[in-house]
């Protein structure tokens, strides 16, 4: 047994470097969105989406997982948005705890390091009562379970009116075979802590590509199953089935058209319960939707009419492509309307 008397001792034991964290956030912020127009469209769609607005503004504990549907980069466009969001939220004068998994995997990052960082950051915001740390076993303190318990003990000391935002970028870098179970455990515990805390705790999880393991953890927390575009995997490789628990509100709605990027489908959508949501970003970035007339039944089947029909449809396609140049990304939706235009 060991005794930790002061906050500085605990931070030192957690091996936390505020300078390193700030340097990582600055690098992510300076990166900006230097990618293709599709990447810019995806990140803009995410930040303007209803689930993100709910996460930012509603006064309820909430866990939001964002699947970016892009390439798996250590420093992705979502890393930039995470750093930007952390900076914006600082104007609220509340604790903003953040972590970049893609960078922390170099050289020895893991879910335990994530909890070390979040705990040490929170210690810097309030004068906590640490007398309970006398009972901590220093030899096992850095185990994931102990760290989650320590973090919970701090959150439970926060005043009722307090708010805490937790932002974790690049979670899929901790979904490999070595760390995925620990990462799932951390996400589950953060979600449980948020639900049980007197203070308001919100958790945002960013996946540059597509999270499957952590998504299933949230589904199991809320009792919801997956459907449509999502797929999940078991420890042994997956069976393309979602969880089917009971209780809680759960729904899945489609928010985008197809496309495919090799990550399990290009469509967008939202799976949600009362206190969590999984957002699936469309491959096309949720761009302006255009309804193109099908011209069904508008013409006879004569050869001349068919040629005229083809020519008119070609003009519609040219118009769509010209709009695409303006809108960056356009989803073409074939319908049965007699005219066309922007929806």
Task: Give an overview of the whole structure.
The chain has 343 residues and is of the alpha/beta class. The chain folds into 2 domains: 7-280, no CATH class; 288-342. Helices cover 39% and strands 15% of the residues. The chain is built from 11 helices and 10 strands. The protein has helices at residues 7-13, 18-31, 37-48, 50-57, 77-89, 101-104, 111-123, 144-155, 180-196, 213-222, 303-327; strands spanning 62-67, 96-100, 163-169, 200-207, 251-254, 269-272, 276-280, 288-292, 330-334, 341-342. The strands form 2 sheets. The protein has a 7-stranded mixed sheet with strand order 2-3-4-1-7-6-5, sandwiched between helices. It has a 3-stranded mixed sheet with strand order 9-8-10, covered by helices on one side. β8 (288-292), α11 (303-327) and β9 (330-334) form a beta-alpha-beta unit. α7 packs parallel to α8 and α9 (180-196) packs parallel to α10. The relative contact order is 0.14. Residues 223-265, 287-309 and 325-343 have low confidence and may be disordered.
């Amino acid at each position: 047994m060991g005794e930790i008397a002061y906050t500085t001792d605990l931070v030192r034991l957690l091996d936390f470097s505020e300078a390193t964290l700030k340097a990582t956030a600055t690098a992510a912020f300076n990166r900006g969105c230097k990618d293709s127009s599709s990447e810019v469209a995806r990140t803009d769609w995410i930040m303007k989406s209803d689930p993100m607005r709910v996460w930012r503004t509603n006064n309820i504990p909430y866990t939001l997982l964002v699947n970016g549907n892009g390439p798996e980069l250590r420093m992705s466009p979502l890393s930039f948005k995470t750093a930007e969001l952390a900076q914006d939220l600082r104007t609220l004068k509340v604790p903003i705890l953040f972590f970049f998994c893609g960078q922390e995997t170099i050289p020895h990052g893991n879910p335990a390091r994530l909890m070390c960082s979040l705990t040490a950051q929170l210690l810097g915001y309030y004068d906590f009562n640490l007398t309970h740390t006398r009972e901590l076993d220093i030899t096992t303190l850095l185990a994931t379970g102990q760290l989650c318990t320590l973090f919970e003990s701090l959150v439970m000391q926060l005043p009722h009116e307090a708010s805490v935002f937790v932002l974790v970028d690049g979670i899929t870098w901790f979904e490999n075979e070595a760390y995925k179970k620990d990462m799932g455990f951390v996400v589950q515990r953060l979600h449980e802590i948020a639900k049980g805390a007197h203070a308001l705790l919100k958790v945002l999880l960013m996946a540059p590509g597509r999270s499957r393991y952590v998504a299933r953890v949230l589904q199991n927390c809320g009792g919801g199953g997956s459907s449509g575009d999502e797929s999940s995997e078991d420890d042994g490789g997956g069976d393309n089935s979602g969880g089917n628990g009971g209780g809680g509100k759960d729904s899945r709605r489609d928010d985008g058209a197809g496309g495919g990027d090799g990550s399990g489908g290009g469509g967008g959508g939202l799976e949600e319960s009362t206190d969590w949501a999984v957002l699936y970003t469309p491959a096309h970035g949720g761009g302006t939707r255009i309804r193109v007339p099908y011209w069904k039944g508008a013409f006879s089947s004569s050869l001349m009419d068919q040629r005229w029909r083809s020519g008119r449809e070609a003009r519609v396609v040219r118009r769509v492509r010209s709009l695409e140049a303006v809108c960056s990304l356009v989803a073409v939706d074939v319908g049965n309307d007699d005219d066309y235009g922007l929806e």
